[in-house]
Amino acid sequence: MIKYREILRLRHEGVSVRNVALSCGCARSTVQRVTSRALDLGITWPLPEELDDSEIYHLLLTRQQGNSSKRRFPSEMQF
To answer: How many CB atoms lie within 10 A of CB 35?
Structure first.
């Protein structure tokens, strides 16, 4: 499982994207996506204590209502 709270904490402390990815065992693109989404949503460190990991996941990675864009998988992509 991706450690979203740890990603946000380390990035807040100024740790590089590469080192956060190594520390959390995830891809650099995941770190970039999580931090970008948190910035878009105005989520800042420190996170509220009552916010658990599943709530962080849903805040960061669920699409906003009304957004009609869909994730496209390689087999569905048009060239």
So the answer is: 19
